[in-house]
Amino acid sequence: MKLFLKLFCLLLFILSFSCTRPKNVKPIVRSIAQVDYVACHVVEEELLIEEVNFSIIPKTFENVKNYVFKNHCASCHFGKDSYLPHLDDYESVKSVIDFNNLSQSKLIQTISKRKMPPSYSLMNRDYDAFVFLKDWVDGGAL
């Protein structure tokens, strides 16, 4: 079964380069060696994580949700029966942001200490996504 998943992920990896995509979105999987821990994290909506050019999109909750949380956190933190905080809900996200000391927010501290995601931290997996999230929080998390 594991071999089948690897082959399936490899096929998706190869096919992803032939798909038509917006210019600012491309697969994050950069080598076959990464297929195990990036492409094979099956999330209900997606199989491949997408990389985004964060320098050209506005820092809003919707963009954080769609480009950071959805790609890296959805399998555990999206939906009403998921682990807290529910990262698909702005009110729940606000509960882990300290508006008096934004850079010390539980959300940022948990990720910056490489605790989340537990399988492979966001700091290692997609540092640009972490910086985008941190900039959004430091900007007031609006």
SSE inventory with pairings:
Layout: H1 2-16, E1 25-27, H2 35-39, E2 50-52, H3 61-72, H4 74-77, H5 90-94, H6 106-112, H7 122-125, H8 127-138
Antiparallel strand pairs: 1-2
Kindly describe this structure:
The protein has 142 residues and is mainly α. It folds into two domains: 1-52, no CATH class; 56-142, no CATH class. 45% of the residues lie in helices and 4% in strands. The protein has eight helices and two strands. The chain has helices spanning 2-16, 35-39, 61-72, 74-77, 90-94, 106-112, 122-125, 127-138, and strands at 25-27, 50-52. A two-stranded antiparallel sheet has the order 1-2. The longest helix has 15 residues, at 2-16. The protein starts with a helix and ends with a helix. The model is unreliable at 17-47 (pLDDT under 50).
Which key terms come to mind for this protein?
globular; 8 helices; mainly alpha; 142 residues; 2 domains; 4% strand; two-stranded antiparallel ribbon
Structure summary:
With about 140 residues, the protein is mainly alpha-helical. The protein contains eight helices and two strands, in the order H-E-H-E-H-H-H-H-H-H. It folds into two domains: about 1-50, no CATH class; about 55-140, no CATH class.
Strand order within the widest beta sheet: 1-2
- The structure class reads mainly alpha
Report helical residue fraction: 40-55%
Low-confidence stretches: 17-47
Largest sheet: 2 strands, antiparallel
Distance between the termini: 44 Å
Radius of gyration (CA) equals 15 Å
Q: Quick check: average pLDDT?
A: 73
Number of strands: 2
